[in-house]
Input
Amino acid sequence: MLIRDQVPLAPLTTLGLGGPARFYLAAESPEDIEGGVKWASARGLPLLVLGGGSNLVIADEGFPGLVLQVATRGIETRAVGDSVELTAAAGEEWDDVVALAVERGWAGLECLSGIPGRVGATPVQNVGAYGQDVAQTLVRLEALDRASGRRLRFSREECGFAYRSSRFKQADLNRYLLLAVTFRLRHQGPPCVGYSELSAFLSARGIERPALADVRQAVLQLRRNKSMVIDPADPESRSVGSFFTNPVVEVEQAATVEACLRQAGHLGQSERMPSYPAPDGRAKLSAAWLIERAGFPKGYTSGGAGISAHHSLALVNRGGTAREIVDLAHQIRRVVQERFGISLEPEPVLVGLTL
Output
């Protein structure tokens, strides 16, 4: 277990921002993870768990404690009837796992192609895209209880999954450190193509009965079109993906917002505000649509931060600082709240920063 000091964190994040770690450990085994947790605790230091750095905005001052980067590797599979259970170590690159599943003909993860980061982060916020999320196929996970030092298992039902959330992001934030995740995938199962944008993309290319590989390639292309696949050659991809989640509100509130928009002239008489059915009979609104209607178009720039030219939800590093990113997010959030009465919730983890 090698503890280093004053390690730059910006190169370890997709945003490319953030100051140094006072101490840093690349944990390549569960024992390294346990050792790092104990090391920080014994010294009274704060602990930051880092995966692929795709969902973090780290303060320009850096982190004053131990940054433990989960770098464990390993994938195991076993047949379960007509399905297969795939168990991946938390430090495996997420898209490598998706690519493997598609290559083997295992359905259930194909729409999650191209999402950056590592396996251990996916259950925390119930990562999802194009009609799939990890809660649909996750059957259990292994985690380390940082307080007791015990390794525990959680079933899907015990994870408290919700839209872009879980118990690990809410009630048990920072209590558990995920070690491995198991998914149950359908051998030779049909791909998921229920999302309208995805199905339209495939149909436009004459692919009426897509294979898993067709869906993966379509998702990757859709994400590239929005600069949502990490690409050093594409400066618009220097982001944490979607900065805000789509707000889920009561149906009555959605109707009130739409009426107010129409009355204020932000919505034509025949135009409808995007709204989609959500669990518990509520409505999911489009955060991107609200942001643009609040006066923040694609390509908007403020100092060294901006909104992606290809995706209204992605805040992009344009050579600025973490503080400039958060200041822009605060401005967007404030204006949307003032104009529409909707509070946008940030999706990434803010380290040493607040909105």
In short: The first strand starts at residue 3 and ends at 8.
